[in-house]
Write a structure and sequence with these properties.
This protein is mainly alpha-helical. It contains 4 helices and 2 strands, in the order E-H-H-H-H-E. It is elongated.
């Protein structure tokens, strides 16, 4: 078996010279009017009130409130519920040293479970009603 000589300089293979096609210049019409792209609406799916309430209840057991409202599209309500619960939690924690927190901490937690779930269910109902009515601000894409 013979091996190529590594010191030999590389030479390109001999190929036939094929004729190169010449580009023909065609007249391309230039539009005189502006082109308007029609935006297409994206369908917005309906959301489940049961999922929103389940998110509020299950995560609320761990002290994380507002996720159901985030799911329903009410970001400000969800963030307010999260931050206000943790603010009140630490106030109630300090009140435990005066034995008042024994009463106020569970009441705050129960109130947030009920309030968060009701707000999330209502937000989903409003979202779905606006989707059905066609008044929901859908994201539009232009192609």
């Amino acid at each position: 078996m013979t091996h190529p000589d590594p010191y030999q300089q590389w030479q390109p293979a001999q190929t036939e010279h094929l004729p190169v096609p010449v580009a023909q210049h065609h007249h391309v019409p230039v539009p005189t009017q502006s082109v308007y792209v029609v935006p297409q609406a994206v369908l917005v799916p309906q959301k489940s009130a049961g999922a929103a309430v389940a998110l509020e209840l299950v995560l609320g057991l761990f002290g994380i409130f507002g996720v159901g409202n985030l799911y329903a599209g009410r970001t400000s309500s969800g963030v307010i519920l999260m931050l206000s619960f943790w603010g009140l939690f630490w106030i109630n924690f300090l009140l435990l040293f005066f034995f008042v927190g024994i009463v106020t901490m569970p009441l705050t937690w129960i109130a947030y479970l009920v309030l968060g779930s009701l707000l999330a269910a209502r937000a989903v109902e409003r979202h779905n009603a606006s989707v059905v009515a066609g008044t929901h601000a859908a994201i539009t894409r232009s192609y």
